[in-house]
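Dear Dr. H.,

I hope your travels went smoothly. While you were away I took the liberty of generating a structure for the chain from your last submission, since the lab meeting agenda had it listed for discussion. I wanted you to have the full record in hand beforehand rather than looking at slides cold. The sequence, exactly as received, is reproduced here:
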Amino acid sequence: MRRILSIAARAFWAMLPAYVPNNAAVLVGGGRPIDGGRTWRSKRLLGDGKTWRGTLVGTAAGLALALLLNRLEAWIAATTDRSVPRFGRSALTLPFGAMCGDMAASFYKRRSGRDRGAPVPGLDQLDFVLGALSLTAILSPTWFRRVFRLPVVLAVLVLTPLLHIGTNLLAYLFGLKSEPY
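The corresponding predicted structure, in token form, is as follows:
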């Protein structure tokens, strides 16, 4: 049980810079849509929900959190007797990749005729994870292989949907989202 908790904690720590961007983007909301209103085959490319402001603020929030976690790394290791990863280039690739994954899901939703905010179970919970992990694996492969070993990846894939559902429900209850998913 202790090993499982250790893996879950490592997965959570490693993914924190990817977990924050979409929440930060919701908080700042609005602004100019990334797609500029453009369409493809009579459907918006991304929709009004994907804005430059949200993408920049979300990425910056994830980067800032990664830098803060780097400052806390030695203290965490000393007080818990466990090592946690430091973020190098991944401080940027995780949050920006998360935003890109979310945009890719929006693009897919528009192509499949779904409205903004329409649920797609599985995709809604893991789109940003796939974006964050993919971009990080490409641009920071050594760090990625060291941190995201199979047990950690499995923990991310199990924990993320639970965290996603919980945070979306809270955002809905606080009036920050128009739907609870």
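Two observations you may find useful: The first strand starts at residue 39 and ends at 40. The CA atoms of residues 59 and 169 lie 22 Å apart.

With kind regards,
E. W.
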